Amino acid sequence: MPLPTMSLRAPLEHHQLIRDIATALRTRPELADVLRAVLQTQHDCIAQRDTDVLQTIFERLEHGQEFSRRIMAFAENINERVKALEQSAGTHEETGAANHPR
Questions:
Q1: pLDDT tens digits, one per residue of 30-74
Q2: Full domain range(s) for residue 59
Q3: Residue 52 counted as domain residue
Q4: Sign of CA dihedral 98, 99, 101, 102
Q5: Does 57 reside within a domain?
Q6: Residue 23's closest CA among 42, 37, 1, 3?
Q7: 57 near 63, Cβ under 8 Å?
Q8: Which of 3, 9, 31, 92 is the most exposed place for a label (fewest CB within 10 A)?
Q9: Is residue 83 predicted with pLDDT exceeding 90?
């Protein structure tokens, strides 16, 4: 009984590799478990690497957010100091004008 066929889209450079894998699986069906294990291991490693990359991105985002909070606190501090200086200068002008009539 002939085996069923299937159609697969893959880059041209992988066609021979796919044919070789199909031939090996057809002649040695026990290779399916080995191949599946290899592919699963590779998938798990890729998933782990993706997780590592995401963790790095999350850490950078957290650092960026912390930096933004510090900058905002610094800017607010400067703003409060400027307002205090402006109020102090206004008070001195009023006091100075009263003490030194023209």
A1: 888 888 888 888 777 665 666 666 777 788 888 889 999 999 999
A2: 13-99
A3: yes
A4: negative
A5: yes
A6: 3
A7: no
A8: 9
A9: yes
Residue 14: both structure tokens together? 């992988």
**Is the model's pLDDT at 8 over the cut of 80?**
yes
Q: Residue written as tokens 């590779």?
A: 42
For 28-47, letters b (16+ CB in 10 Å) and e give eeeeeeeeeeeeeeeeeeee
In three-state form (DSSP H/G/I as H, E/B as E, the rest C), the secondary structure along 51-93 is HHHHHHHHHHHHHHHHHHHHHHHHHHHHHHHHHHHHHHHHHHH
CA separation for the pair 5, 23 (Å, rounded)? 12
Token readout for 88 is 């102090």
On whether residue 3 sits in a domain, the answer given is no
